[in-house]
Amino acid sequence: MALALAVGVAALALLPLGYIAWYTADLGWEGVRELVLRPRVGELLWNTTRLVLGTVIGCAVLGVGAAWLVERSSVPARRVWHVLLVAPLAVPAFVNSYAWISLLPGLDTYAGALLVVTLSYFPFVYLPVAAAFRGLDPALEETARGLGLSSWAVFRRVQLPQLRVALLGGGLLVALHLLAEFGALQMLRYPTFTTAIYDQYRATFNGPGATMLAGVLVLLCLGLLLAEIRLRGRRGYARTARGAARPVRPVDLRGLTAPALLALATLVGLALVVPLASLGYWMTGGRSAAVDWAALSTTTGTTLALAAAAAAVTTAMALPTGWLAVRARGRISTLLERSTYLGSSVPGIVVALALVTLSIRATPWLYQTVPVLLAAYAILFLPRAVVTVRSAVEQFPPLYDDVAASLGSSAPDRLRRVTVPLLAPGIGAGAALVFLAVVTELTATLLLAPTGTTTLATAFWSASSALDYGSAAPYAVVMVLLSAPATVLLSRDARRGLTP
Amino acid sequence: MSSLTVQALTKAFGTTPVLTGVDLHVPEGSLTALLGASGCGKTTLLRLIAGFDDPDAGTVALGDRIVAGEGRAVAARRRGIGFVPQEGGLFPHLTVAGNISFGLPRRQRRDGGRVRDLLELVGLDASLADRSPHQLSGGQQQRVALARALAPAPSLVLLDEPFSSLDAGLREETRQAVSAALVASGATAVLVTHDQAEALSMADQVAVLRSGRLVQLTDPRTLYRSPRDLDVAAFVGEAVVLDADVRGGTAHCALGAVRCDGDVADGPARVLLRPEQLRLAPSGQAGALVARVHGVDFYGHDSRVRLVLSDGATVNARVDGADLPAVGDDVAVTVRGTALAFPVDAAGRSVPLQPSV
């Protein structure tokens, strides 16, 4: 029963990938060559690659530097800095992008795109690296110092090798997110695969062209995902022994304290203060008319309802997969679990494109309906629910069931008194993560939402696309407020990536 | 309370046999320890008795009621068997009181007096009732788990290595509290353990399991004095084993002539002594055998003296008192009591003493 359900979930998760594969095969080699081997694709590939490389390097430098200062140096108010460095995650990348371009219209260049996405994504490196720093056994560093190594040598020869897994993991996460990023780059008018797919779809409704671009993009994502899975397999390398490690004595910065503070302040200023100030500016002093409260509340209501429905559906779908992954370990359950990760590594634009085409062709009565939109959300955000359900089940050994049975409790009674109460917190956390992700989802919603249905993200998008920055601001503010709790959850899940 | 009878119980996981033809009888109101090294099948036996797994062959009976085998499989929840798992297994979402009253009928669950009585039975303070399991020490968790198992007045209580996760001091204290509670409740109990001291000190009878077979079932003293073979002897305590030649009921070995237990046929044998049977005295004593002290391990309450005999064999003696020989001293060794002789067969292997139980 659970197996059949999990197979169904995996099939849904793999639907977009299967669609792309089927379409490619159907097109034949000649067709594929004609559509893929052309200068436009090369241009997009170059744009995408240099942006991904630049962003990953930028995020790595900022993330490791900030993590070292916060976790290992004597910089004052370390806890405050930690929160401030995670906080940019509460600002969706496309809102950040809007905040910058609305103030500095000249940012529609490679450098501008690099700046904005780096500031949006560096916490993805900062968080795991900071956690890894925290987990490093100080005894190793002391041993190295005892062997006569300098501070710099300790960092390079002892700490850096241990941080490698966290750093690479964070970098891959940045790259995967960036490949899927649409809103931020479209707003900065920086052409990459996602924006090209969107434009092609909107302008010409050119099925084969858009689908083949999607195919190339999916290949890039799968390459990165494979790298991530291989890396995760070796994660044990960075894990630390149990038991409380002694607190680390931070490196005394002495005269460098002021420059360090200045560097952190600049980073937080650019990544957090600028977008918030920009939002504040457009909310109050901008050219906008008064806030349209009625529209704002309707849109917020729609968004919350959609997010709640998506959270319920996605978490329900995650239950069989998460349960089997723990209770029936083996090839099949691993395969089913991996399918959900694989499916969600496909960028939102591709998922949307696949579902649009499939629903028009196979089930026209479902085209542009809420169920298709919910299916897209489920495909994109299943791993968040699977990961939390899975860890909840892991903390619930079969032993409790045995003990309850030996105390005379029947199967339904056990479900009510033992299973559900023990799994509820994990399931709730998974649902909350999905909920918060849906609140700021832009790409799939843009393509799949039923006509007349606007969410915070799409309302924000249509206003800001029309350069009506003032009307867009209130929607952005609500999204930031709703996402703030997600940063708390994310800072706890620091070492999780796409695959647990 | 009722007795437990296990007959010809057999279980395999895939092609790996885990239990082979185990027979076991636990009299009403007694405590039986299942003793064996890890992987010998003792936890599997416990799970079959509890009803968490089904046997491939054989029967399990509580009193006269067959609960497994002969085409019957009574569900675990209908067996009335209390279970105390290794680390307590307290439900983390319930308080101590909630855990203890879990198996009680709905109406009795709110009865604070009942919970208090059970806490008292396992030697815990009634003020713990509202705590969460994670606020308890390991020993307290074990006692609450026992109280929970005893609450519905089960016909039998199973304890799966309940003390193995506790540190030494707490283990002794918890052991005594659990013993007392089991006696006070008059429960029939089966305790799984790999700790021979625990088995010998707590149980009315000990069942020794080895590779899925029951090797010996007897009371602790007999087990220690008359183990069925030399492996069991070494498993239940430190052993001094020497080659000997038996003539007329006396074994002649490196420690001289030692009387044997019971009737022993003449011929080559291996004899078993316990280290506390060896007595040491300053050398020069007439008629005593001289050995050289190779090492001394001082434990406080007693000491182990490692000796090299004249033929090169090494033996250990347990000696109490502070008057210990120094390393390199020569000491006189005498044997107190009798030895247990295991005849040696043609292949040079010692032969078990009694037929399989």
Automatic annotation (TrEMBL), chain A:
InterPro entries with a match to the protein in the record: MetI-like, MetI-like_sf
Keyword set, alphabetical order: Cell inner membrane, Cell membrane, Membrane, Transmembrane, Transmembrane helix, Transport
Any GO BP: transmembrane transport
Listed transmembrane segments: 44-69, 81-101, 113-133, 165-188, 208-227, 256-283, 303-326, 338-359, 365-382, 422-449, 469-490
Domain ABC transmembrane type-1 stretches: 45-230, 300-490
Any single Gene Ontology cellular-component annotation: plasma membrane
SUPFAM superfamilies cross-referenced by the UniProt entry: MetI-like
Membrane topology per record: Multi-pass membrane protein
Listed Gene3D superfamilies: MetI-like
Subcellular location: Cell inner membrane; Cell membrane
Superkingdom classification of source: Bacteria
A Pfam family annotated for this UniProt entry: BPD_transp_1
PANTHER family (alphabetical): FE(3+)-TRANSPORT SYSTEM PERMEASE PROTEIN FBPB 2 (PTHR43357:SF3), INNER MEMBRANE ABC TRANSPORTER PERMEASE PROTEIN YDCV (PTHR43357)
Stated family: Belongs to the binding-protein-dependent transport system permease family.
Protein name: Iron(III) transport system permease protein
From TrEMBL, chain B:
Name of protein: ABC-type quaternary amine transporter
Taxonomic source organism: Blastococcus tunisiensis
InterPro entries: AAA+_ATPase, ABC_SmlMolc_Importer, ABC_transporter-like_ATP-bd, ABC_transporter-like_CS, ABC_transpr_FbpC, Mo/tungstate-bd_C_term_dom, P-loop_NTPase, Transp-assoc_OB_typ2
Keyword Ribosomal protein: no
Stretches assigned to the ABC transporter domain: 4-236
Keywords annotated in UniProt: ATP-binding, Cell inner membrane, Cell membrane, Ion transport, Iron, Iron transport, Membrane, Nucleotide-binding, Translocase, Transport
GO cellular component: ATP-binding cassette (ABC) transporter complex
Keyword Transport among record annotations: yes
Record PROSITE patterns: ABC_TRANSPORTER_1, ABC_TRANSPORTER_2
EC number of the protein: 7.6.2.9
SMART domains: AAA
Main enzyme class: translocase
